[in-house]
Amino acid sequence: MSDETPVLEAKKRERTGSRYCRRIREQGGLPAVVYGHKQDPLSITLDAREAMTHIMRGEKVYTLNIEGGGTETVLLRELQYDYLGTNVVHCDLSRVDLNERVHTRTPIRLIGEAVGMKVSGATLMHAITELDLECQVTNLPDYIEVDISDLDVGGTIRAGDIKLPKESMKLLTDPNAEVAHIVYHHMTEESETAEGETVEEQAAPEVITEKKEESEG
After folding, report:
1. What's the number of CA atoms in the CB half-sphere (13 Å) around residue 16?
2. Residue 174 in contact with residue 132, Cβ under 8 Å?
3. If you placed Cys at 197, which of 23, 109, 110, 201 could pair as Cys (CB 3.0 to 4.6 Å)?
4. Are residues 117 and 76 part of one domain?
5. What is the per-residue pLDDT across 18-60, written as a single tens digit (0 to 9) for each?
């Protein structure tokens, strides 16, 4: 995460419902709800452009400067999209303490050129793309880099093999889950033979029996 927690300006909203939220979005706002810490949910409006700028950067923890209501430290929990799945129309935030440990899903980035990929017929399998972690709010990573440079054909990198950025982080994903694996696709003898034959050879009919000699009349 960033060294500084982004500040988002927020306004309380008393009215809810899809019609009212649509009006907020038309005016450049982003409807949101703040939950957690045994307090009542708080419906707010964010500036859509400001909020999406930080969200697209992968930032997850924010300081809300609520108009007439002080400040809240919150964690981005969920984004809701329109029916096309392209535009964010609502977000859920949860109150957090900066020393609190939270559960988060962090994207995996594979870096480096695997040595096994230099072999013809090799394929890189990327089974899981996120890691489930438990860590302090102040240590939330934007992503986890995994170096696959030494990965050879038949080799596997599992979740438990990955070194986490902070020792205090706890891996919640199954340690045996495959993150990256290189497999080799070889041709069978039949396919190799078929590919090696000429078109004439493939088209030639098989001789079943020899033609009998005609008897003399």
Report:
1. 8
2. no
3. 201
4. no
5. 888 989 999 999 999 999 888 889 999 999 999 999 998 888 8
What does the H/E/C string look like for 116-132?
Answer: HHHCCCEEEECCCCEEE
What are the CA-CA distances from residue 76 to residues 25, 62, 106, 129 (Å)? 19, 8, 13, 20
Stretch (H or E) spanning 196? helix 189-196
Q: How many structural domains is the chain composed of? A: 2
Backbone angles phi, psi at 144, to 5 degrees: -115, 125
* CATH number for the domain that contains residue 178: 2.170.120.20
Domain contains 48: yes
What are the tens digits of pLDDT across the range 117-143?
A: 988 888 999 989 999 999 988 888 889
Q: Among 96, 120, 135, give the residue marking a domain's end.
A: 96
Torsion sign (Cα): 102, 103, 109, 115:
positive
**Are 172 and 150 within one domain?**
yes
Q: Is 46 left (phi over 0), alpha (psi -120 to 50) or beta?
A: beta
Place of tokens 């694996």: 181
Q: Is the pTM of this model over 0.90?
A: no
Same domain as 86, residue 27: yes
d(CA 86, CA 82) in angstroms, rounded, equals 6
